[in-house]
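Continued from yesterday's entry.
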Amino acid sequence: MRGRILRSLAVTVLGVLLTTSVGSTQGDRAKALLGKWQGAVQWEGGAGSRTGDPNRTLVIDSVDQKDGKWVASGRYGITGKGLGKVDIEVQESGASIGIRFVAGGNSTVRLSLSGARQLTGTLTVPGTSQRGNDRRFNLEKVD
């Protein structure tokens, strides 16, 4: 009887340790998003051909877990032109982590952490065009 209780206790403790370790790893990856990111949207036909300045800044001020999901808040906009508040969804899939938020003009930004200092993905502009609505978008961590 005592042997069963000890094995049960050991399994329970091991389960708690593994869950804590996995949760901590996910939290560490989510916290890696904190900071200032700068880069550019790649418009069709070259820089500035569609909507002006392609340079963008994203500042992620906080990353928190709410209702079992990671969420972030920050500011986003054209570099040097002022930043507006954005609510950011943090998405985890296996070893990868990504973010999604709606920017000005109802554009949707989807970026994935690729390395410690790179966010890569797309900015999707509303409307339709023959060339498609997704624009490549890369940011690099500067702070």
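--- second protein ---
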Amino acid sequence: MEKNHRTIRSRYQKALVFLFFGLFITVTARAQLLAPTITVSPSSTNVSNGDTVTFTIVAHCNVGVLTSLSCVLTNTLTKGTVPTNVLFQTLSGVLNIDSTITNTLTIKNISSACAGTYTVKSSDLLGILGLSSSVPITLNILPTVLAVPGQAGMVANGFKLQFSGPIGSNVVIEASSDLIHWAPISTNVLTGGALSYIDTAAKANPSRFYRAQLH
């Protein structure tokens, strides 16, 4: 008889464990369905120095628990802060049931300090439900080639140009006489981050303009 009682008690305890585990899984799954969601457009982009870019951030909430959005930038320069030229329109108030709010992340006069991964995060009211969502936004700055004015000028056999840029980059130098029509005059690799070129045709042209770009 005692053995039967122990068997029944053991089965009862196991049933309680399975019931608790099942309830935990169900609550967790439903909680995830209630968690706020974030979509960003574009999710990543490549820009040049001095550009302005705007990301559209859409937050959606199934229930009225989302109160605000936060944004941090992760890179070696800012160490988790947001540069002063980054304007993040924060969401205020509480999202009602099945509602959506659109915000923007605008970055002006982009520099290397702005490059990296921005993480936009939404959280529920006071963290009571422990629900949150986060979305990464990647901003890459395209490498550029720069003229070195102090090393440019007429020499014996033409006009000397010098450019600097990322090591190993392929640089195309173009020339124009009217700033409208451009023609490539040289393609070279930036060895050691610098490139010198002498345009021998400059001596036969009364006016000559130059530009260079990476290819």
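The first helix runs from residue 2 to 34. The chain has three domains: 1-34, 35-141, 146-214. Will compare against the first tomorrow.
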